[in-house]
Amino acid sequence: MSDNFTSQPTQSSAHPFAEQLSHHGIPETMWPYLHLNGVGELVEKLEIIFTEFDPQRVTATMPVAGNTQVYGILHGGASAALAETLGSMAAALHGAGRANPVGVDLNITHHKAGRSGLATAVCTPIHLGRSSTCHEIVISNEQGQRVATSRITNMLLPVEK
């Protein structure tokens, strides 16, 4: 797996969120950019686990159990949060420490109810520019059926030195 961060030294377990970041599948090369908040509280609550972390493809899983709405199916807001998390992380990879992503548009279409097991999200770039990115996120169930499709646009704000 290659990414924009491979030329930077990895962090030791002295990182304030080392255990959390490891648990959620965040590569150590990304840790320096997550020193203030780790993965964030919502990623922990939703139990999102990253399984692939590359500028051209970011993937993660999230259990349906614990992330359901009143009828016992996957909550659309949980699906949207999963999509936004992947799209923002992918934009951060593209920004490579020179820019911070800020979501400016998120849309999601729900195709099928998520009923059990793990939802898997795959995020791929549509546009990777200097000041913005756009990614598509496809969320599927364990049978490989598409549950939702999302698109996120992030503005890339220059890191202040």
Automatic annotation (TrEMBL):
Q: Which UniProt keywords apply?
A: Hydrolase
What domain of life is recorded for the organism? Answer: Bacteria
> What range(s) does the Thioesterase domain occupy?
71-147
Q: What family classification does the UniProt entry report for this protein? A: Belongs to the thioesterase PaaI family.
PANTHER family assigned to the protein according to its UniProt record, in alphabetical order: 1,4-DIHYDROXY-2-NAPHTHOYL-COA THIOESTERASE 1
**What is this protein's record name?**
Thioesterase family domain-containing protein
